[in-house]
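Recap slide: Acyl-peptide hydrolase, sequence and predicted structure.
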Amino acid sequence: MQDEVGRYVITHKDRLLRLGADLVFAICEDKQAEVVILNQGEDTQRESGFEEAGIQHQNYLCVDLSKFGGTEKRMTETRAIQPSDLYQLRALAEPQMSADGRFTALVVIAVDKEQDGYIYELHLMDIQSGHVSIISSGANKLRSPRFSPDGGQLAFIVSQEEHGEHVYVGETSSLSALSNWTLNEGTLAGAKFKDLFTKRKLAAELSWFPDGTSLLLAQVSSTLPDVKEYANVYFKTDGTGLLRQVETQFWLVPLEGEPRQFYKQQSGIGTMAVSPNGSEIAFTVQKFPGKGSWEADIQLVNVESGTVRPLTDSNGPIRAISYAPTGNSLVWLGHQSAASYGTESLWMTDLVSGQSRALLPQFDRPIGVIQKGDVSPVSGTDRPVFSTDGQSVYFVAQDGGPTHVYKVGLDDGTPVRLTGDAQRCVSHFSVSTAGDVLFVSSTPDKPEELYLLRGGIEEQLTGINQAFCKQVRLAQASRMVFQGADNWPIEGWLMLPPANTSTANTATAQDAPYPLVLVVHGGPHGAFGCGFTLKHQALCGSGFAVLYVNPRGSQAYGTDFAAAVIGDWGGKDYIDIMNAVDKVVADGWADGARLGVTGYSYGGFMTTWIIGHTDRFQAAAPGGCVSNLISFQGTSDIGKHWGPKEHLANVYDGFETLWARSPIAYVKNVNTPTLLYHAEGDDRCPIGQSEEFYTALRDLGTEAVFVRYPGGSHSYGTTGKPSYRVDTQERLNRWFREKLGSTKSTVSSKKSP
């Protein structure tokens, strides 16, 4: 009964109930009250009295509280958050809105503990009534929900391991009347859906043609022989493995009639878009596929003739393309720099001349979703969107910590932030023809939910993670600005363990100083931000203060800031980070005798670098690390293209330079107990990087533990098996508890963070 009611509460807009799902759970457990599910128009006599309590006459759950006692106590009981709470959290992705603004479609992803995988659901919400229809694909990945131009149809893709990828299309009005349906062996039982198109693998996302009668789909086929022969320096990519021989076919798939292939090429594609008149397709291709570089170009293919013409001659990456309503230009995300630290901006390309110009020349911040927390296994949705009149463009950007939705006029250049001034992270967004903005957002202490910005008023549409939040104590993040090297301002955040009470989610000064875990982000051109991060919360739940900082090299602070780490890994970036640690220790929030450090990728590099240059930390846990810049250049999938640009040296003419910047060169100095963890299938920072460092530590007699996770990729911490993700965090928590303890100590003074 609890699961049944919980599902109803979560999917039927808990915001309408004014009750709280945890209270409903408690009532059901004790069986001390009657639970009645009422639909609009049913038994109005039984509805009387609920309106006064703030319950709307929609689809809702009503509870007779007259037989229930102890409600107040149950509502306030909470527990510490823990790594296994990954199984309770839900991720939200790819929100879409129908043309009339009435319906929203949303992908909701849960963790399947039993199958050690993920469960995908499509939630179709009627905004007016609050009714939600759920189509579940189980363990089969569901993606790319797209309304037809008039909103009357909804299409999406389901990936079935044994049956290939299926494209389903159904009438929006019929689907909105459903409750819950489950895909089974390629069919959708009982629903008015058509299995329109099936191929082994489809590229990118689906797109509707403007007349609403056909879909654009790209089929990808690949082969990998037993004996592989390569003649280019680039022969593997993280997450995919060894490069395959690839063919891409473009298909026009009508709702009625036979699909038609109109173009094919012997390579993969990036993103694609249909022109407003439906006559051509724009798509991106890698410019130098054999070099492993990120340069891309846009090409145009005629739907009738299949002829192709190149549009751009780019010096940098291009992705997330969108047509202007007039059809005479495209906007896209990318940059035109050959540097390794290039910051993506918003560009527009004229379709006649092929000339491109930056729409935000003075807004030196990364456009797109740079960080989104660590719960969701899918990438953010950040394709720019034209306004209906074609005079402005909507986009997302990260400015410091927050990520927001912005709007800019084509000839203005000054972005306007639309989603308030909150310390939040927008991870997915879309825009309706009326200019309504639908977006997924989280904060450091609130997981993802869906929001609607309409007429300047923001409304939360879902409470999918609300019940979970009421069960646990969540740490809050305090923004801090530290003085880094050269007196540069360095932004960071301090999270303190929530008070162990039934009513408070905030720590108190009396508990300080805390054992502190410093967390370093990857990149180095990544960035921490304001998204919900389970890793940080789980460490706080285990009794640690958590400090995370954006040192020089991080994006979100301008190109010069991002470039400041080039050729200087372990230099001033190290000073930035250590100055932040010094500050929180000096202010009395952290115990200088109980410090831990962890980080992943470049964060793993910095962790191994730190313990080779100071004994201040009592425990370290580098993950997916880079420890040897020399071997990294020859074994990483980006080592030869990206490494020399980042470190200003090649193995064959800069050996000494690379060695001097490699943590392995200082391993003899390490006295800190070290836990290393790595995915065996990592091709970005290959597992040999951890093997080298671990072997040296053990050979020198330094305490070290090495944990290897089968398969996976460099991103296994967000996309890998849930059991590995949980196991990693549990090991980190245990390691730091063992080495740092979690009891409070005394300090003479404390300043507010």
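The longest strand covers residues 590-600.
Residues 722-740 form the longest helix (19 residues).
(End of recap.)
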